[in-house]
Amino acid sequence: MSQTKLSNIETARVTPSLVDVELILRALDAPPELVAEAIALARLAHTEWQGKRVSWRRGLEKRQAELAGLEAEASTLRFFLPSMLTGLLATPEYIRASLGHTPGDISKTVAKKIARQEVLYAEAKQFRFLLTEQAVRWLIVPRHAMAVQIDRIISISQLPHVRIGIIPLTSPVRRGPLNTFTVYDRRLATVETLTGRIVFQDPRDIAEHLDVFELFQRQALFDDEARNTLGQWAAEYRS
Q1: What is the pLDDT of residue 101?
Q2: I need a labelling partner for 67 at 20 to 30 A (CA). Which of 3, 20, 50, 127 fits?
């Protein structure tokens, strides 16, 4: 480790990663109990909890501005969607219905979510979406509107810099799809829960989410195979 980096850590200009902490403690031959405590603190320093109720008080449209900023800065964005669709893929009707549990006026939030969809047409970026069958078919809106929603996913999948994978219920996957998560390049990952979201910045946490993404990606259908499956599901809703 360079003297400059060590100095920046000592003067709190840089927050050390877990690897940095381990290197320093190993060099100091620190006792195991101190190593465990320091590593736990380092992980906390790279993890942030954002409660849903706080977002409601601030106004969800402000959260949309933050997401737009993250999407603007990232070159490769990976979305794992096990239960519902992200706003980037959603129709206005789906967006409004998905916010039905949110207190207060949601019109500004709906408008911000729709405006964020412009980023999908930034050809310098790479988008990777993994959707389970449940995420695609969960009946958020009436059946005819669900068919339109699935049509939109098919349309977006035609963009050359967007790759959409579909994981049918019949796909053999060794690991359960526990949480929705998004990984922005290799610098940040967000995980959604019922009561808020967790933001990870530690490289090890990000690497683990990338590994999980790769695991599910191997079981997904892509390109024409995915579009054919989506088309069948849309036809079922139309019938």
Answers
A1: 84
A2: 20
Q: How far apart are CA 192 and CA 174, in angstroms?
A: 21
CA distances from 176 to 59, 169, 171, 179 (A): 33, 11, 12, 9
Q: Which tens digits make up the pLDDT trace of 78-116?
A: 999 999 999 999 999 999 999 988 888 889 999 999 999
Specify the residue for token string 């036809």.
Answer: 235
User: Three-state SS for 210?
Assistant: helix
Q: Tell me the HSE value of 217 on the side-chain side, using a 13 A CA sphere.
A: 13
Residue 139 region by backbone torsions, left for phi larger than 0, else alpha for psi between -120 and 50, else beta: beta
Question: In the chain, what are the domain boundaries?
Answer: 3-44, 48-238
DSSP label of 221: B
Contact 106, 95 (CB under 8 A): no
The kind and range of the H/E element at 164 are: strand 162-167
Using only C-alpha atoms, what is the Rg of the chain?
20
pLDDT in tens, 126-162: 999 999 999 999 999 999 999 999 999 999 999 999 9
How many angstroms separate the CA atoms of 158 and 163, rounded?
8
For 48-238, the fitting CATH number among 3.30.390.50, 3.90.550.10, 3.30.870.10, 3.40.190.290 is 3.30.870.10
Alpha helix stretches (DSSP H) within the chain: 3-10, 18-27, 32-45, 52-58, 60-73, 92-98, 107-116, 133-137, 143-156, 203-217, 223-238
Q: Is 133 helix (H, G, I), strand (E, B) or coil?
A: helix
